[in-house]
Amino acid sequence: MKQFSLILGLVLIISTTLSIAQESQVKEDFKPSLKNQPGKEYPQVNSQGYARFKVEAPQAQSVNVSLGLGGKGGTDLTKDEDGVWWGTTDGPMDEGFHYYHLTVDGGVFNDPGALNYYGSTRWESGIEIPAHDQDFYMLKNVPHGNVQQVLFPSPSTETSRRAFVYTPPGYEEDPTKRYPVLYLQHGWGEDETAWSNQGHANLIMDNLLSEGKTAPFIIVMTYGMTNEVKYGGLRDFKVDAFQTVLVDELIPYVDANFRTFSDQENRAMAGLSMGGMETHAITLNKPDVFSYYALLSGGIYTPEEIQDSSTPKLIFLSCGSKENPERVQSAVKALSEAGINAVSFVSEGTAHEFQTWRRSLYELAPLLFSK
Amino acid sequence: MKQFSLILGLVLIISTTLSIAQESQVKEDFKPSLKNQPGKEYPQVNSQGYARFKVEAPQAQSVNVSLGLGGKGGTDLTKDEDGVWWGTTDGPMDEGFHYYHLTVDGGVFNDPGALNYYGSTRWESGIEIPAHDQDFYMLKNVPHGNVQQVLFPSPSTETSRRAFVYTPPGYEEDPTKRYPVLYLQHGWGEDETAWSNQGHANLIMDNLLSEGKTAPFIIVMTYGMTNEVKYGGLRDFKVDAFQTVLVDELIPYVDANFRTFSDQENRAMAGLSMGGMETHAITLNKPDVFSYYALLSGGIYTPEEIQDSSTPKLIFLSCGSKENPERVQSAVKALSEAGINAVSFVSEGTAHEFQTWRRSLYELAPLLFSK
Q1: A183-193, pLDDT tens digit by residue?
Q2: In Å, how far is B258's CA from the nearest CA of chain A?
Q3: How many CB atoms lie within 10 A of CB B154?
Q4: Would you list the domain boundaries of chain A?
Q5: Do A38 and B115 touch (CB under 8 A)?
Q6: Which fold has domain B31-130?
Q7: pTM of this structure
Q8: How many CB atoms neighbour CB A231 within 10 A?
Q9: For testing contact with chain A, the best of B108, B115, B116, B123 (most A CBs within 10 A)
């Protein structure tokens, strides 16, 4: 009996020690996510990138959060005696922005604590895991450009369509100054709000400009899923409808209503994911319209696709290190060998998510419209 | 037994007839609400103003929608055999926009089918009951002004603050033209997005301008709950912090960065509900700053409060017919008798909601900055 108790004691000590060791891995320095609704305490994130959730649903049978390490079906929350559901991800999340949702008793809802962002063709909850390099997209005490909603006439789709236009700080001050333009596209399931809301494109530009790291330019962002692409149906994607809206309707509207340089040399197009697919197709279909091409996690160009190697002043290809960086890097090597000015960028430690694309824009902007 | 069967039969026939009569009152011409997320079929509304909801939550025990005729705790949904919850309001809703939310097993969530609007200090679901006069705030094929986000420096609150600025169509075309400015405030629990998103202030102006019914002017909308007013704490509301932001920080920023007329004659302030309270206080505190004052469901002015009856070029007081219209009307009578130019407007069939305020802006705009 004594021996048995001793063994039992040892087992208890060992398992308690292991359990303490495991728990102590999660640092208790959780703070509200920067993407929370005003005044909301949860969700929270800690300095390691763990996310913690709190959901009130006292009579619910199950609450799950769609975030967590891959392949495990997210994070199941557990209910405390007050009917409040709690849970922490089973590991640190990648730096940056993530979409997520709750599943409450089999129904999909957003987290009442979080702000919503348009992704997956719906408004989803968003959470921000603080990144070591987040300074470049933070709101700082620097001169700010404006982001304005324009409603432009689109005869081809028989409606007024929405675009957002970033004008750099100082745009209103000198009514004679003109600017080059970057047309910047979102990904599948997102819309024209994505690059400002999730991407902070305006803050990235404000911060770059305040440090003199980029030339000022206008950014135009519009909805790119003109022909209602279904998920998984990207192979059947036809760019024609969107190309008409962009090239024949939006660009003339922007050139008429903003102080732009309206020549090919002063026009760039970039897109993330599906927006990269659109950029690829449209820049090749319309070599006289754009002179800077950028695909962010959005495929590659081959030298054979470029009719005249002097036409693109720059081809920029990027992706996250957790995607397929070799593809981007070898494409840039091939383009360079063919005499085309090409640059690659790989975002360290990120996947097919907005942190990759924020960093890509930060790297791309200084390369655009340089003399 | 025969007699009993006969009576039972009659009862069954009568109750069935009544039930059919009642059901036939609800017209089966439901269509998706105009405030749904793209492609979402539910919630729906019919031509009478009934709203119908569909929520998927197969394992839930109860699902309630916060909308319905007053005093009945909203609408309880019922689950069908596929685990889908359905329900229709117990009567027609008032015309126009309503905030709402779901309660799923005791937890408060938004309807995954609806767009979200900031109200009650959170992003809530929104639904639109088609109004007989909705044409004036619809998106039409007319020239559109722009709504732009500006981030203005606010030393008093030690941050960059956000405002939205509506510039009328043609603003970009003539760089010498200047415009008067209306400062337009939201209500308690809302923010600077409310007047564009829920109020369609930009579309109301675009439509009025296309018919030549108003002079063009700029509208500036910023966040008015600078000092974190708690619901029910409006009696303790102090306007000082917001007045500093508005008068000492935002107005100089707007006058420096937009082509405004920056004199008192060309500046108006209006606000709904709590925004009316702010308008009342700030216009009286700063008679040299604004010359048009408008309170939308936001109280009244008394003749005694107006130091110089020639100072306000116009006082506009409005509310819904389901609020307290006599108060607004008698206040305007008293102001008029005191020699002050005052106008009242009562929105028929509406309460303390955005349809009242959309109509108020539509009535107010043509009265502003008229020669």
Answers
A1: 999 999 999 99
A2: 7
A3: 19
A4: 31-130, 136-367
A5: no
A6: Immunoglobulin-like (2.60.40)
A7: 0.89
A8: 10
A9: B123
